[in-house]
Amino acid sequence: MKLIVQKFGGSSVADSDKLYNVADIITKAYSQGNEVVVVVSAQGDTTDELIEKAKSINRNASKREMDVLLSAGEQISIALLAMAIQNLGFPVVSLLGWQAGFITNSAYGSARIEKVNTSRIRNELDKKNIVIVAGFQGINKCDNITTFGRGGSDTSAVAIAASLHADLCQIYTDVEGVYTANPREFPEAKKLKEISYNEMLELATLGAQVLNNRSVEMAKKYNVELEVLSSMSKSSGTIVRSVAKMEKMFLSGVVKDTNITRVSVTGVPDQPGWAFKLFSMLAAKDINVDIILQSIGRNGTKDITFTVIKDKIDETLKILNNYVLPLETSKVIFDDNVAKVSIVGAGMETHAGVASQMFEALYEEQINIQMISTSEIKISVLIDAKDADAAVRSIHRKFVR
Ligand code: ADP
Ligand code: ASP
Ligand code: MG
After folding, report:
1. Binding-site residues, ligand 1, Cβ < 6 A
2. d(CA 313, CA 195)
3. Which ligand has the shortest distance to the CA of 251?
4. 3-173 has which fold?
5. Please, which residues have CB within 8 angstroms of residue 191's CB and are 6 or more apart in sequence?
6. Contact 341, 311 (CB under 8 A)
7. Phi, psi of 89 (to 5 degrees)
8. How far does residue 359's CA lie from ligand 2's centre (Å)?
9. Which residues contact 390 (CB under 8 A, 6 or more apart)?
10. Any idea which ligand is nearest the CA of 48?
11. pLDDT tens for each residue of the chain, 401 residues long
């Protein structure tokens, strides 16, 4: 007997047929003699619809109330899935995040899991129940509902798998695994048999939505092996583990992210401390900055350019303008018609010339690079948003055969 955690994303449970399809997968694993804990997301676009509904009532609703609202999406799907499983004649119980023992901090909307008290889940498994848990939610020390941020159900599944020392954690989604590029936009993308935690973490952080980056971080920390696979097909998926077997190519993926804005603070004094001042003010408001470029000082001033995610731009401009407006030489400008295109691969560390090949691919499409940033296993470039797809295609052609 194995203990299996299975997670099904929103598209896998979007309607009755899909719920029954998922119920078949679950009950098959159970019938083979396994203990099965299932994590589900809200159906289809429910979470987006709830956010729109909230905006129509109050655009500045508190994060606490948003979490009460958004957690309802998962509440609906666990109950409906349990009903489908009951109808197939199997013992099942659905649990909300708090019933399943998810204790979090109080960062509404992006709460971190502090621990999972698994006694209730264990108890239900001992009673031979299939246990269905609502993803992406928990409870804080004041007994308030919290949610983990978009895509957070992946993290719920990994947290349960880690806490229960599950034998297997399967992430069922609407594609057959992790690909070398988003397979919905780039049909030439290839499915990876395996990928390491580190590479998956980079891909997820750089915009490959297939796994939430926090779930990968947690899987790496607790050494939970993940299998990403499709709920709609029987093909084998992708294994995410600490060391992935090297395939022929050393690049694991090309990712694009158009959810970013480039911000420049021009004409700040060419003196020590400016980068520190600007970025510490943004950090204090929890605004993450990415690719950073600082110009060489000229005529006593310099420019600092960086990127932030699109929905932080208003707050960023407000903070920076307040600060630099009194300076006569300085101004803040931004451009949200930009995209970050990145390549990720552990093999990069040992292969020379990867960057030049990437830049050659961009040159072949006459794509201009605005900014570049590199780390051991990734290279990112900032380019015009309209060039993003051509860039991914060209880079992919160069590296993946
Ligand atoms: P779920 O609802 O199951 O959580 P998501 O929509 O969050 O599913 O994630 C699956 C989607 O991730 C796919 O439909 C695919 O378009 C997208 N995706 C982006 N990059 C990749 C990639 N490199 N490999 C696989 N899927 C990717
Ligand atoms: N329903 C939430 C979302 O849409 C959580 C998830 O799907 O993982 O982001
Ligand atoms: Mg998801």
Report:
1. 9-12, 41, 151, 173-175, 178-179, 181-184, 208-210, 253
2. 33
3. 1
4. Carbamate kinase (3.40.1160)
5. 176, 177, 178, 179, 183, 237, 238
6. no
7. 90, 25
8. 36
9. 365, 367
10. 2
11. 999 999 999 999 999 999 999 999 999 999 999 999 999 999 999 999 999 999 999 999 999 999 999 999 999 999 999 999 999 999 999 999 999 999 999 999 999 999 999 999 999 999 999 999 999 999 999 999 999 999 999 999 999 999 999 999 999 999 999 999 999 999 999 999 999 999 999 999 999 999 999 999 999 999 999 999 999 999 999 999 997 665 556 789 999 999 999 999 999 999 999 899 999 999 998 899 999 999 998 889 999 999 999 999 999 999 999 888 778 888 999 999 999 999 999 888 777 789 999 999 999 999 999 999 999 899 999 999 999 999 999 999 999 98
Residue type (1 letter), 48 = D
- Extract the tokens encoding 362: 């961009």
For residue 243 the two structure tokens come to: 């060391």
- As given in the structure block, the two tokens for residue 218 are 């947690």
Question: Ligand 2 centroid vs 134 CA: distance in angstroms?
Answer: 10
Would you say how long the chain is, in residues?
401
């290839």: which residue's tokens? 190
* pTM of the shown model: 0.94
Q: 3-state DSSP: the chain helix, strand, coil percent, rounded to 5?
A: 40, 25, 35
The string of DSSP codes covering 172-206 is EESSSS-BSS-TTT-TT--B-SEEEHHHHHHHHHT
Amino acid identity, residue 9? G
Q: Are 226 and 210 in contact (CB under 8 A)?
A: no
Q: Is the CB of 42 under 6 A from ligand 2?
A: yes
The amino acid present at 167, given as its one-letter code, is D
Give the number of the atom of ligand 2 that is nearest the alpha carbon of residue 149. 9
Strand spans (E) along 2-129? 3-8, 35-40, 92-95, 102-104, 113-116
